[in-house]
């Protein structure tokens, strides 16, 4: 199998952390591409008609895409236990929370990095950032017992979202008012899977 990905993508990082937390890295080749909303990479486009990454080629059918589909598929392949039945709806909601924070964070990156300066909307950026802070609030106020429990995709999605905030939006300081979440992340970020997928660029 091939994972079509970029090192900076938080969505791709979810899958890459999963591969390292399970025994699946040996079965998946990581294929680096450079893609953007304005210019899709041909390999990314061939695997996913919308040109987005990550996508996963697999032997038994067409490529899979959307990180949540890929992580669910890989988990099911080896019964990795990252979506425990007893907590399934909590895990899925938490994974969705991390993904939504990534959506907003990536959208701020596109707004600031890809648009001509005179077209950048400060209101749009502020609105997206308030969604991210809403996610941090909810994680810290409601979900720490889960995040302090056995590893699930909720942990991985949360950590990849926070890691991306550090990568691209460090100056906005998501840690302010989120000390408990920040302490959790400092510890989780030391895992080999996170260190191995850490990107600065
Ligand atoms: N919901 C998707 C989001 C994927 C996504 O937005 N990926 C970005 C990179 S971080 C992308 O491919 N952007 C290029 C584009 O939008 O064409 C997922 O979870 O995989």
Element-level helix/strand string: EHEHEEHHHHHHH
Rg, Å, rounded: 17 Å
What spatial order of strands do you see in the largest sheet? 2-1-3-4
Structural class: alpha+beta
For this entry, what is the oligomeric state of its chains? Answer: single chain
- Taken as a percent bin, the fraction of beta residues is 5-15%
- The CATH architecture of the largest domain can be named as Up-down Bundle
Structural commentary:
The protein is 57% helix and 8% strand. The chain is an alpha+beta fold. A four-stranded mixed sheet has the order 2-1-3-4. It folds into two domains: 2-78, 3-Layer(aba) Sandwich (Glutaredoxin); 85-194, Glutathione S-transferase Yfyf (Class Pi), Chain A, domain 2, CATH 1.20.1050.10. Helix 1 (10-21) links the parallel strand 1 (2-5) and strand 2. The longest helix is centred in the middle third of the chain and has 27 residues, at 88-114. It binds glutathione. Glutathione binds next to helix 3 and helix 4.
């Amino acid at each position: 199998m091939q994972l079509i990905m970029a090192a900076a993508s938080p969505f791709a990082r979810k899958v890459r952390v999963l591969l390292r937390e399970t025994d699946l890295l040996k079965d998946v080749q990581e294929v680096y591409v450079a893609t953007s909303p304005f210019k899709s990479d041909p390999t990314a486009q061939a695997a996913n008609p919308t040109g987005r990454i990550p996508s996963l080629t697999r032997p038994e059918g067409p490529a899979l895409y959307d990180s949540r589909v890929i992580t669910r598929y890989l988990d099911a392949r080896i019964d990795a236990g990252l979506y425990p039945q007893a907590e399934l709806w909590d895990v899925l909601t938490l994974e969705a929370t991390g993904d939504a924070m990534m959506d907003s964070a990536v959208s701020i990156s596109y707004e600031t990095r890809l648009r001509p300066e005179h077209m950048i909307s400060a209101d749009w950026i502020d609105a997206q950032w308030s969604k991210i802070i809403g996610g941090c609030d909810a994680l810290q106020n409601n979900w720490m017992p889960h995040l302090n429990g056995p590893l699930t995709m909720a942990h991985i999605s949360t950590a990849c979202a926070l890691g991306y905030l550090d990568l691209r939006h460090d100056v906005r300081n998501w840690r302010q008012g989120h000390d408990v979440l920040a302490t959790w992340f400092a510890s989780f970020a030391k895992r080999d899977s996170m260190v191995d997928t850490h990107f600065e660029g």
